[in-house]
Amino acid sequence: MLSRLLRAAALGTGAAVSTSLLAPAAFAAASDYRFELASARPAGPGKTDVTVRLVHAPDNKPVPDAVIFQTRADMAPAGMPTMTGNVAPQAGQQPGTYRFQIDTGMAGGWALTLAAKVQGEPETVRATVTFNAAQ
Ligand SMILES: [Cu+2]
């Protein structure tokens, strides 16, 4: 069964298939943690400062020291999923918040997709946060 699913994942379109492959365990992790938008502020021409908060949902507590090892910003919310912007992690965040400067060369709806490792949680936490970029 596993090999059949892996083959399906290899043939399929990535994220959706591999999510179902990991469904039982990944669901527990996904429901325990969530990323939420804390702020999205203009940071000069074509740039937006985005701060997200990682929350442990059962007790609503911020989660510090997560390692965000994958980021992607694109304009999927505005119907332009192939329009991407560079994402640069920034220092100086409060515990449980994570800040990025994103090259948002176009005003409108953007999505920031994150993959993170959380201390004590074997599953990767994945989330997409949407925000609006001004120009
Ligand atoms: Cu665009």
TrEMBL record:
Q: Print the keywords alphabetically.
A: Signal
**Annotated InterPro entries:** YtkA-like_dom
List residues of the YtkA-like domain.
28-114
Query: Where does the signal sequence lie?
Result: 1-28
What top-level branch of life does the organism fall under? Bacteria
Q: Name one Pfam family in it.
A: YtkA
Q: Does the keyword Signal apply?
A: yes
Protein name in UniProt: FixH family protein
